[in-house]
Amino acid sequence: MQWSVSALRDQNGDPVAYFSTQKILTRLEKIEDEKLLFQSVVKQAPGMILVTNIEGIIVYVNDAFVNNIGYSRSELVGQHSRMLKSGKQGAKFYERMWQELVRHGKFEDVFISQRKDGSLFYDKKKITTIKDKQGNPKYYLAVSYDITQTVETEQDLRDKLFTDQLTKTFNRKKYEKTIKSKITAFKQSDNRFSLILFDIDHFKTINDTHGHQKGDTILKELAKLTQQNLRKNEDMLFRWGGEEFAVITDAPLQQAVLIAQKLRKTIEAHDFSGLHVTASFGVAAIGPEMGAKQLFEQADNALYEAKEQGRNRVITADPDAT
After folding, report:
1. Which residues touch 192 (CB under 8 Å, ≥6 apart)?
2. What is the reported pTM?
3. Domain, as residue range, for 231
4. Is 244 a catalytic residue?
5. Tens-digit pLDDT profile for residues 80-129
6. 219 and 82, same structural domain?
7. Active-site hit among 108, 154, 243, 308
8. Residue 273 sits in a domain of what CATH number?
């Protein structure tokens, strides 16, 4: 420690005491201690901390960040932060991020980030702009937490909420949520779609003759067979209840009829462990001034007509029916 000592003299000029600047240096030492404490807190903070310059080059990461991401500090510092992108979030997400940072100096959302080993994790991140004395952006400070376990738990709960436990298809609750969304999109953007309802012919006889366990096996096998013959992104299968199923398809009416015919023939040709199974189908398309109830009634009436006409057939709803 450096000392600055000054003599205090009497009226004759003789030194009677000495004054030192020890107190000032103690303040400087305290400031230095506080700086070291701050660095230690940031370094050992449980949250992941990342700092980049305005070009996105990483200038600092703390221990939590290094431990989670799998890269060493030397592998990260000096690299562009884009190395952490997973590719799972499109350009619009990052455009929104930059707009918020420019306008408000901060941005908060869940990122899907990628570790060194290629695994992905949900990264709840808050980014804050650090400015210099002139008010110009100089750094971006990101503090984040790995919330993968929370997200996956919530997803599991949603899956159970919207999944039929026997067939593992979507359930009626999911149907109601989806049909509401589809009708809203139709009214706003004229995104047309169709509804296919079908159920297994003489299913009660199957249950009574072969037992409910056999009936459950047929339901599961039929659901799997149907799913295999639907388009992945355009068609959704739901178990409405009992032996009745629904398909919401982005196809217009005539194409939806072809999908229903394909399903009918596939089910009829399939060997359900020695049992011959058929199904009846009703098809309806969304129309102007039509709600979820009207659409379902049209498809259900067509299904009823298919059964009245002898089963194992596809009937198209009358679009003028009320």
Report:
1. 186, 250, 252, 285, 286
2. 0.61
3. 163-316
4. no
5. 999 999 999 999 999 999 999 999 999 999 999 999 999 999 999 999 99
6. no
7. 243
8. 3.30.70.270
